[in-house]
Inverse folding.
């Protein structure tokens, strides 16, 4: 039987603010337990929440970037339940009127990472506070509570059930991940729990209109687990339906070791959260002026940046275009810092060499970053250093191959030496003097009569061997194009002799 | 001295006729003698009080005194005060020493007043008789067989029995005005949002409002001058320009239009209260006020609406008392749910549990629209009644409470009868309007009767003016119960 998979995602992303959603305590990760929990976070008797304006701006940025409606007013509501790491006995969230409603994002699907585009609609995005952490180890049968995370601002982004496979779900999550980092509203750090997903999964017979019963997989904190969990869940649902069973609405957890989903609670024992508007907080009003102020402070969204990178039109009034391939553009716009790095390099060298710059950023730079597990912001080679290096390739001072060595020296060096300094100290300057090269070629030809003879008999391979000999003699510094030309010329002469 | 007004005490202090330390010791001695009988205070802490008195004396000596510097003030045990046991009248917080000051406490500290002790109250401010306190009922100084009203019963009793010159209270549905009425003292609940709720332990957030209880309108004005102020830590705190609440005290009230809502003089009002209120209104006529009949047609809805909304908010506000981080935790439990269950079962009294259950019910899936949403809509209608009425009058008057103080235990097993004590006060709370009670005579068994004065938003100065003009020509507010052992 043919089944269609239907997935909707809820993404919880921690917003990048100094202080918490409703208190002045710091949001820095990794402090001593409870060192970043003030009276409000501890929910002492009598304390009250006060909204952090900075959080509102970050949520509005997200809303504007996905073309959503910014609700004014939006309402904070209490979600009531008891848990030791939920100090107030309720979480302040948004229920009936979220700050962001509607909107959509484009995801790229298909194997080559760029083949197809699909629109995923966003239902809503709302602000809420995170809970603290229960620590079950190290307390000898008791539970420790760390409230450092309690009150940390989260944006919960809820999609429509628009995804039709685990890969689309992952593409969606990755696109959101890129977007929130790009906009600077979240660090998206998955290890620290700053970005986690819940997946609502159902299946239906291909061609059916009606959605199947869904089960929600909670708390997936990596793209790999997201993919595996949805696949495991789909397998479970297919098996259940094909063997005459019935799917019951439930919340499930993914066991990554067993690669299966396990029921946490069913609909019958679902909480009644008794949502109601928080009487401690006034309706949140966001004036059109404030929205415009926020819009003006926003960076170019990633999809527009991508379009610009592949665009070939030169319009002196608008921002630069580079006529790159879709592949190059998508690699460069995977992260705003990479895109910025690239643009800085091109700015120095000139748009004409954009492709060469892209190759370097996607190639050498990315490889070394990956190898050293570094973010491009922490790259030991600055855009200026890289640009100066690429310039030396363009003007023929060094070959592309030598440039890689210079780059490596630059990367490992501690003194931020410029390309020119390294070329000079290491004597890597390319020999482009044709007299010098001609002399050298003649010497090599005399020393290798066998190869010359082979070449004259039509053995092309002998030519490469001779080039190699010249390069070896110059320790790679000879301009390869010149060597080729001169060698050909001398050999032809020999052949005519 | 115990009968002195705040102004008189202020003069005694500033002219060095008495020091704050002496004054504080005198009141502490009075408390020591009387509190055994009246149970108005939960906590008295001589050391902390005298520390403040010494600071006040230094302030006065260096000429930095304010009008209330050095004067002992009793604070309802709902206000968090640093270093003080702050119980909210509950076993749940019977071990809670606050690490911080409420905004109201900060303001009184800044003014140089002395915290003379924390007053008894209905548990979490839920009650109209002070009988729901974990620390036992407060006795009404006019008749120790009767209740002092609630929830600020300890504060009203402390002022009536001269254990404190003035006190703070809070009012959610009548908790300042009703005990003031039953104890024969004056009390005002300001416009919602004027007094910060930061550090005031929440009962029903959209209704809770702090205010003073004192012997006269003039004293209340001085107290309000300290208590009112914008506080960024309370999102519902109003950025209202600072006022001098004493400014209009002496203004004549000739031509004042007093509205008497016909619904406040209907069935349910006892004759003795009615007589005293009528006499007070007649006194106002003599002062040149014009009496007009007005209507607040939705008055009957105020108790049902209040008892949906207040418990709904309370059920959520009280969730933080779970035995995890502070407060009462059961000594024995088998697992997490059991710890919650036992700690909350032991920590809360019957009335608090009843309201948590009501609140949980009205917020539940399937009932929310029928109760909570409906009540919110009716709340707006109740507020509109006042808007309409204030088109015809400047001030509204009526009885504060349908009857004089009832006997201890009389309504204990009849929550509905108890809830009706707030029949006249709850509406102003729901509308967020300022309301006041002043003593205007005595009823059955010589128990005091209070006159309820409701003004429009931000009309505190006018209400105080209206009350003060009455107190200039009458002496009900100077009457004092017959207190044994007291000077």
């Amino acid at each position: 039987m043919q089944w269609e998979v239907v997935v909707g995602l809820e993404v919880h992303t921690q917003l990048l603010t100094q202080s918490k959603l409703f208190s002045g305590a710091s949001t820095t990760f990794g402090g001593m337990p409870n060192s970043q929990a003030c009276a409000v976070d501890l929910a002492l008797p009598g304390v009250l929440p006060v909204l952090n304006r900075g959080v509102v701006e970050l949520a509005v940025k997200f809303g504007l970037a996905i073309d959503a409606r910014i609700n004014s007013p939006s309402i904070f509501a209490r979600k009531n339940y008891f848990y030791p790491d939920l100090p107030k006995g309720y979480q302040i969230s948004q229920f009936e009127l979220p700050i962001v409603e509607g909107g959509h994002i484009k995801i790229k699907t298909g194997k080559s990472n760029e083949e197809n585009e699909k629109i995923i609609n966003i239902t809503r995005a709302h602000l809420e506070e995170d809970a603290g952490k229960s620590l079950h180890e190290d307390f000898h049968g008791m539970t420790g509570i760390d409230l450092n995370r309690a009150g940390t601002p989260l944006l919960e982004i809820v999609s429509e059930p628009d995804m039709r496979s685990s890969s689309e779900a992952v593409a969606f999550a990755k696109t959101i991940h890129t977007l929130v980092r790009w906009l600077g509203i979240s660090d998206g750090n998955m290890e620290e729990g700053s970005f986690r997903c819940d997946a609502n999964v159902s299946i239906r017979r291909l061609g059916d209109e009606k959605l199947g019963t869904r089960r929600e997989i909670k708390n997936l904190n990596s793209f790999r687990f997201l993919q595996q969990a949805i696949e495991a869940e789909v397998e479970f649902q297919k098996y259940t339906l094909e063997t005459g069973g019935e799917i019951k609405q439930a919340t499930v957890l993914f066991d990554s070791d067993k690669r299966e989903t396990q029921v946490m609670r069913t609909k019958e024992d679902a909480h009644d959260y008794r949502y109601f508007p928080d009487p401690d907080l006034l309706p949140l009003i966001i004036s059109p002026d404030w929205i415009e102020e926020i819009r003006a402070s926003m960076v170019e969204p990633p999809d527009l940046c991508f379009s610009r990178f592949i665009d070939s039109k030169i319009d002196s009034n608008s921002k630069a275009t580079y006529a790159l391939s879709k592949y190059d553009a998508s690699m460069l716009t995977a992260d705003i810092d990479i895109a910025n790095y690239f643009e800085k390099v091109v700015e120095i060298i000139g748009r004409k060499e954009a492709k060469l710059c892209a190759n370097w950023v996607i190639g050498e730079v990315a490889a070394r970053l990956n190898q050293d597990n570094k973010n491009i912001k922490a790259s030991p080679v600055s855009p200026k250093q890289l640009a100066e290096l690429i310039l030396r390739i363009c003007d023929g001072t060094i070959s592309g191959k030598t440039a890689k060595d210079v780059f490596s020296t630059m990367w490992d060096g501690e003194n931020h030496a410029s390309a020119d300094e390294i070329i000079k100290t290491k004597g890597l300057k390319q020999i482009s003097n044709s007299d010098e090269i001609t002399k050298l070629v003649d010497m090599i030809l005399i020393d290798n009569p066998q190869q010359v003879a082979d070449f004259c008999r039509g053995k092309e391979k002998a030519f490469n061997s001779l080039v190699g000999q010249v390069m070896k003699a110059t320790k790679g510094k000879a301009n390869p194009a010149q060597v080729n030309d001169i060698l050909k010329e001398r050999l032809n002469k020999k052949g005519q002799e | 001295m115990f009968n002195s007004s705040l102004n008189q005490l202020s003069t005694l202090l500033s002219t060095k006729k008495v020091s704050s330390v002496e004054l504080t010791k005198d009141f502490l001695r009075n408390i020591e003698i009387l509190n055994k009988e009246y149970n108005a205070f939960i906590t008295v802490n001589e050391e902390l009080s005298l520390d403040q008195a010494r600071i006040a004396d230094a302030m006065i000596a260096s000429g930095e005194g304010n009008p209330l510097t050095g004067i002992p003030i009793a604070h309802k045990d709902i206000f968090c005060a640093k270093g003080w046991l702050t119980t909210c009248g509950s076993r749940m917080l019977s071990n809670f020493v606050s690490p911080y000051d409420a905004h109201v406490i900060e303001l009184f500290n800044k003014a140089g007043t002395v915290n003379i002790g924390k007053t008894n109250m209905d548990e979490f401010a839920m009650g109209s008789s002070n009988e729901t306190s974990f620390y036992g009922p407060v006795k009404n100084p006019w008749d120790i067989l009767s209740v002092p009203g609630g929830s600020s019963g300890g504060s009203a009793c402390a002022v009536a029995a001269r254990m404190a010159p003035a006190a703070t209270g809070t009012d959610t549905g009548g908790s300042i005005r009703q005990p003031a009425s039953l104890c024969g003292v004056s009390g005002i609940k300001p416009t919602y949002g004027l007094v910060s709720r930061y550090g005031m332990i929440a009962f029903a957030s959209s209704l809770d409002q702090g205010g003073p209880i004192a012997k006269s309108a003039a004293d209340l004005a001085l107290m309000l001058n300290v208590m009112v102020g914008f506080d960024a830590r309370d999102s519902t705190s109003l950025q209202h320009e600072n006022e001098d609440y004493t400014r209009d005290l002496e203004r004549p009230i000739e031509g004042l239009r007093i509205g008497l809502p016909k619904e406040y003089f209907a069935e349910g009002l006892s004759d003795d209260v009615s007589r005293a209120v009528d006499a007070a209104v007649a006194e106002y006529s003599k002062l040149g006020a014009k009496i007009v009949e007005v209507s607040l047609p939705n008055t009957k809805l105020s108790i049902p609406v209040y008892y949906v909304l207040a418990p709904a908010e309370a059920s959520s506000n009280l969730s933080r008392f779970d035995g995890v981080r502070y407060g009462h935790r059961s000594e024995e439990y088998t697992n997490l749910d059991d710890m919650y269950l036992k700690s909350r079962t032991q920590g809360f009294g019957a009335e608090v549990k009843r309201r948590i259950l009501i609140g949980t019910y009205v917020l539940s899936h399937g009932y929310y629209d029928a109760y909570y949403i409906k009540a919110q809509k009716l709340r707006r209608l109740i507020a509109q009644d006042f808007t309409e009425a204030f088109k015809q009058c400047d001030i509204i008057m009526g009885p504060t409470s349908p009857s004089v103080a009832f006997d201890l235990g009389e309504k204990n097993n009849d929550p509905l009868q108890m809830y009706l004590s707030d029949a006249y006060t709850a509406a102003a709370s729901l509308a967020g309007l300022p309301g006041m009670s002043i003593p205007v005579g005595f009823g059955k068994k010589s128990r005091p009767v209070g006159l309820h004065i409701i003004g429009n938003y931000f009309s505190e100065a006018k209400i105080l003016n209206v009350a003060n003009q009455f107190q200039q020509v009458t002496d009900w507010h100077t009457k004092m119960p017959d207190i044994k052992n007291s000077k």
In short: Residues 223-242 of chain A form the longest helix (20 residues). Chain A touches chain B through 29 residues (CB under 8 Å). Chain A has a mean pLDDT of 91.
